[in-house]
Inverse folding.
């Protein structure tokens, strides 16, 4: 997962008409790396996520009991260790493992964060109305996020890379125009192929030609690109909280890649708990 923008409103309620979480995310990956599209996992029936068939983890997922997690890699090519453990299991372990508060889980991850290549990890528990972040290349401990619109790409939280700034502003505009933009609109907005101007590109240790290509929200190269886009929203409901989530990807489940991806899966369900108050 290489670009995530989201509006987090922990005080959302039916009365104020806000969504608890509105999020859209792109997963960028090599086309040769097989993955399963979003589905309910048979070995962890409460988990809804895609699955990386190389490492066994995932890049973004939710659970029936109100958990959420997503991950982006931190771009530092000179620091990459081929034998480091796969980062996607950090997401799946939070969703499928022993239930922990987001900050407690991120604290446990931080103790072993040095073992992994660079990453950013978001973990949330909608029953607690808590969403936390930890980056193992940040000089800061795990922290719960304040309300507002945030973004993650392949640097630390809210680092102003051009595509992150553009997509964060686009999400703000969408919510200003309609507090509940459709998931289709959220997906379409994030699938933006425009390249940033050279003077705005970050310097991450790769060539300027590569920086240009990766500056697009929706990436397309012969061997690497945006494999899927996911949009989700968590709304207060009469019975607690409801989830709606949609994924558009380049794989219909048979691992035959079609570019640009147009295969869609959509899910909607209620979380089984009552909201406070």
């Amino acid at each position: 997962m290489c670009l995530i923008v989201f509006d987090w409103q922990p005080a959302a309620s039916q009365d104020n008409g806000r969504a608890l979480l509105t999020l859209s995310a792109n997963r960028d990956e090599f086309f040769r790396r097989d993955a399963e599209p979003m589905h309910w996992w048979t070995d962890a029936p409460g988990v809804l996520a895609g699955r990386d068939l190389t490492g066994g983890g995932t890049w973004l997922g939710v659970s029936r009991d109100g958990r959420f997690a997503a991950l982006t890699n931190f771009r530092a090519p000179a620091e990459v260790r081929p034998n480091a453990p796969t980062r996607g299991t950090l997401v799946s372990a939070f969703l499928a493992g022993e239930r922990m508060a987001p900050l407690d889980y991120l604290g446990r991850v931080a103790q072993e964060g040095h073992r992994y290549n660079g990453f950013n990890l978001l973990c949330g528990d909608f029953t607690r109305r808590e969403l936390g972040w930890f980056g193992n290349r940040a000089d800061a401990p795990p922290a719960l996020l304040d309300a507002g619109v945030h973004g993650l790409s392949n640097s630390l939280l809210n680092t102003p890379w051009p595509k992150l700034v553009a997509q964060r502003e686009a999400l703000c505009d969408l919510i200003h125009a309609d507090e509940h933009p459709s998931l289709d609109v959220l997906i379409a907005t994030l699938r933006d192929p425009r390249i940033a101007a050279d003077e705005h590109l970050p310097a991450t240790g790769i060539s300027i030609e590569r920086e240009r290509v990766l500056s697009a929200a929706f990436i397309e190269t012969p061997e690497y690109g945006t494999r899927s886009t996911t949009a989700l929203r968590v709304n207060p409901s009469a019975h607690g909280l409801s989830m709606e989530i949609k994924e558009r990807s380049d794989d219909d489940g048979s691992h035959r890649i079609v570019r640009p991806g147009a295969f869609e899966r959509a899910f909607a369900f209620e979380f089984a708990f009552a909201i406070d108050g």
